[in-house]
């Protein structure tokens, strides 16, 4: 049976949102296995593509579930999936290089050392010489289009800078900022679990996700969040 929620319920829901949904939420970053010096494969071992090698050394999909395509997409993919990223090299982080010259796919490697005020980074990687072999090289960051670094333990420089308490308005696991805006008119959107923002959404499409919840001990299902952020029409 299709029902329209009475105005009194709407006021009740809005008051509950204002009371409950402005709690400070800390950003929680995903992590993967840090292998800054303990590697499975040896130098000159045959392995193949750089992405496959990095995933292998950090535990594969058991620890790291992104970076499945071109190397150059790994930075944005990791950021969207909730991993800490930034521009400062750290031991154990994944360096992501954009495509350059004839290499249109880009490159990834694991940071094992750094020097000269972070202007040179030593990588453990595969296929750097297009031979499919594992090797180590010092990379000058000024010579390659470095997109950034993905931090294994979630505590890299960008994580420290961004791990602040932010007031988000939340409804059914969706949070947005600023909280005084409606969901569709906000500027940032997040997936929240147990009071923590675990991933970001690229746009306001999450505002239209369908959910279920209780109103006055009545279960309402197939709830569509509209421009007002409250379930205006639903099926009991």
Condensed summary:
The protein is an alpha+beta fold.
Backbone structural class: alpha+beta
Total of helices = 4
The number of domains: 2
Overall strand count: 16
**What is the CATH architecture assignment of the largest domain?**
Alpha-Beta Complex
Order of helices and strands: EHEHHEEEEEEHEEEEEEEE
- Largest sheet, strands/sense/barrel: 6 strands, antiparallel
N-C termini distance: 6 Å
Shape: elongated
Query: Which strand-content bin applies to the residues?
Result: 25-35%
Classify the fold: give the CATH topology of the largest domain. Answer: endopeptidase fold (from Nostoc punctiforme)
Give the radius of gyration: 22 Å
Which spans of ≥5 residues are poorly predicted at pLDDT below 50? 1-5, 8-25, 158-164, 226-236
| CATH homologous superfamily caption of the largest domain | endopeptidase domain like (from Nostoc punctiforme)
Would you mind describing this structure in some detail?
With 236 residues, the chain is an alpha+beta fold. The protein folds into two domains: 2-27 and 169-196 and 204-235, no CATH class; 50-160, endopeptidase domain like (from Nostoc punctiforme) (endopeptidase fold (from Nostoc punctiforme)), CATH 3.90.1720. It is built from four helices and 16 strands. The protein has helices at residues 7-20, 50-57, 74-80, 157-162; strands at 2-4, 24-26, 85-86, 94-97, 107-115, 120-126, 134-140, 146-150, 165-167, 169-171, 174-177, 188-193, 196-201, 210-215, 218-224, 233-235. The strands form five sheets. A six-stranded antiparallel sheet has the order 3-8-4-5-6-7. Strands 10-11-12-13 form a four-stranded antiparallel sheet. A hairpin with a 2-residue loop joins β14 and β15. The chain is elongated and about 65 Å long. The N and C termini lie close together (6 Å). Mean pLDDT is 76; it is low at 1-5, 8-25, 158-164 and 226-236.
């Amino acid at each position: 049976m299709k029902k329209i929620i009475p105005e009194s319920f709407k006021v009740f829901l809005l008051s509950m949102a204002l009371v409950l949904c402005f709690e400070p939420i800390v950003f929680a970053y995903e992590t993967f296995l840090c292998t800054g010096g303990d590697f499975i494969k040896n130098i000159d071992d045959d392995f193949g593509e750089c992405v496959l090698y990095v995933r292998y050394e950090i535990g594969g999909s058991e620890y790291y579930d992104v970076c499945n395509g071109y190397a150059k997409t790994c930075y944005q993919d990791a950021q969207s999936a909730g991993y800490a990223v930034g521009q400062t090299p750290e031991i154990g982080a994944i360096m992501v290089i954009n495509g350059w010259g004839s290499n249109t796919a880009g490159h990834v490697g694991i940071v094992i050392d750094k020097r000269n005020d972070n202007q040179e980074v030593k990588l453990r990687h595969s296929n750097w010489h297009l031979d499919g072999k594992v090797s180590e090289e010092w990379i000058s960051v000024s010579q390659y289009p470095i997109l950034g670094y993905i931090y294994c333990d979630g505590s890299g420089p960008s994580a420290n800078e961004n791990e602040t308490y932010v007031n988000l308005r939340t409804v059914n696991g969706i949070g947005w900022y600023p909280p005084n805006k409606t969901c569709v008119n906000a500027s940032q959107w997040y997936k929240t679990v147990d009071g923590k923002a675990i991933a970001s959404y690229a746009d306001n499409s999450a505002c239209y996700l369908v959910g279920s919840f209780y109103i006055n001990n009545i279960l309402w299902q197939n709830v569509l969040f509209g421009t007002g952020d409250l379930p205006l029409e639903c099926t009991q």
